[in-house]
Amino acid sequence: MNYISTRGGTEAVDFQTTVMTGLARDGGLFLPESIPDIHAELSAWATLDYGALAFEIMRRYADLPASDLRTLISDSCAAFRHPQVAPVVAVDGVHILELFHGPTLAFKDIALQFLGRVFEYYLARSGRRLNILAATSGDTGSAAIAGVCGRAGIRIFVLYPHGRISPMQELQMTTVPDDNVFCLAVRGSFDDCQSIVKTIFRDLEFRDRYELGAVNSINWARLLAQIVYYFYGVFQVMARCGARAVQVAVPTGNFGDIFAGYLALRMGLPISRLILATNENDSLAKFFTSGLYRRGKVQATLSPSMDIQVASNFERYLYYRVDRNPREICRLMETFAQSGELRLNGIGATGVDELIAAGSSATAEALAIIKEFYEQHGYLLDPHSAVGVSVGREFQKADEPTLALATAHPAKFAEAVRRATGRDLAHHPELDALVGKPQRRMILNADVEAVRAFLRERIP
Ligand SMILES: *Cc1c(COP(=O)(O)O)cnc(C)c1O
């Protein structure tokens, strides 16, 4: 499979180039030249275990020798604490896909355990090095660090909004002792961090000189790894309920997770619709109800990994919505960069997209759901997953099950759980063990030049 850029300014490239460069050189995002249609495979795939299913899906997108791909997948799966990798549990009529059994207890491990291994695999073959530059709203940073830590030829620089991620999220990054790991606390929002990273990547000369690579959810390999759990989760719910289709509720920030679901749906997985759930940072939810995408001011909430107003993967979705017309994407993205808004034309009678319903759930509602699930069912949700469950409920159907993605372990967001239940319930021994360990981080202004200077100093 080859990959094209949403902005049409580059030649099609292979899987390796796509993964190793992250962002296309014309500033666009990579997408596969075509989306494989897997309708014919559905019944055979429904009973596969996680690793076998991952192999079947990924081999359609990744040009790797089969035995190498199998090893990359099985090593990645082995990093998870649960033998099924992503088990489904039923609570109060909702099926919850637990995506948080990886090393850093958030769903991003699923993508980054795979991506770290793919990087190492390609670097070993080319004899090259890679300096990863990433912006994180909290969970990507620690998952990326866990994914590449101890891997040969890789340095990682992680930017995060100073004081706006949870203490545990910060500890998970800053207590990693390896000297190829650099944590940069930026005085600004996540969008500021992301915009600094994007600006640096756009400077091609700098990017080449310092061998920069990306692990943000713009990296295609991450989306690819995430497609797998949609299949796995939906198959399990279909088998349990005898259902022919499933709705999937997705707590959304950068539109990476839900875009993987969108691809699964377009491949032929029977998802009747995706339910996009945001917190108070609801620019995406508003888009799917009005057709107008407008950059708002970022509000800090108890679900910080979703405190995003400019969703980096949204451009990929738009590409399909403008009939894969890169000129139209350039125009829309230019308009958005200048005015902070864009409008999709030609919205039909069924709304912006009949395949995507959307809503937002304010912090108070998410806390109420956490309390209710704990008190009535003894199940602890983290605040991000609670947003998904809460919005998922609004769109519940009597005749069709809902799968809600649980994106983090509640112990990562213990403060929210305390606020919701009044009790200190959310713990995990590995997180508790981080408290009091020495931390390493640098605090920088939200300034591209400061970050550039830091990279120059640290990369020989
Ligand atoms: C990153 C993250 C999200 C949002 O995922 P996107 O791919 O950015 O939409 C939701 N919940 C948690 C816990 C996360 O870490």
Portion in beta strands: 15-25%
CATH architectural label of the domain at 88-105 and 221-428: 3-Layer(aba) Sandwich
Q: Count the strands? A: 15
Unreliable residue runs: none
Q: What's the number of helices? A: 19
Distance between the termini: 35 Å
Mean pLDDT: 95
Helix content: 40-55%
Radius of gyration: 20 Å
Strand neighbour order, sheet with most strands: 3-4-14-9-10-13
User: Which cofactors or ions or other ligands sit in this model?
Assistant: pyridoxal-5'-phosphate
CATH class of the domain at 88-105 and 221-428: Alpha Beta
Q: Which fold does the CATH topology of the domain at 88-105 and 221-428 refer to?
A: Rossmann fold
| Helical/strand content category | alpha/beta
What kind of sheet is the major sheet?
Answer: 6 strands, mixed
User: Which geometry do the CA atoms define?
Assistant: globular
Describe this structure in words.
This protein has 460 residues and is of the alpha/beta class. The protein has a domain at 88-105 and 221-428: Rossmann fold, CATH 3.40.50.1100. The chain is 44% helix and 16% strand. It is built from 19 helices and 15 strands. The chain has helices at residues 15-21, 42-45, 50-58, 66-78, 108-126, 139-148, 167-174, 190-202, 204-209, 220-241, 256-267, 283-290, 314-321, 326-339, 363-377, 383-394, 414-421, 429-432, 448-458; strands at 3-5, 30-32, 88-91, 94-98, 130-135, 154-161, 181-187, 212-213, 246-251, 271-278, 292-294, 341-343, 356-360, 402-406, 442-445. The strands form four sheets. It has a six-stranded mixed sheet with strand order 3-4-14-9-10-13, sandwiched between helices. A hairpin with a 2-residue loop joins strand 3 and strand 4. Helix 10 (220-241) packs across helix 11 (256-267). The longest helix is centred in the middle third of the chain and has 22 residues, at 220-241. The radius of gyration is 20 Å and the shape is globular. The protein starts with a strand and ends with a helix. The mean pLDDT is 95. Pyridoxal-5'-phosphate binds next to helix 11. Pyridoxal-5'-phosphate is lined by residues 106, 108, 139, 217, 251-258, 305-306, 384, 407-408.
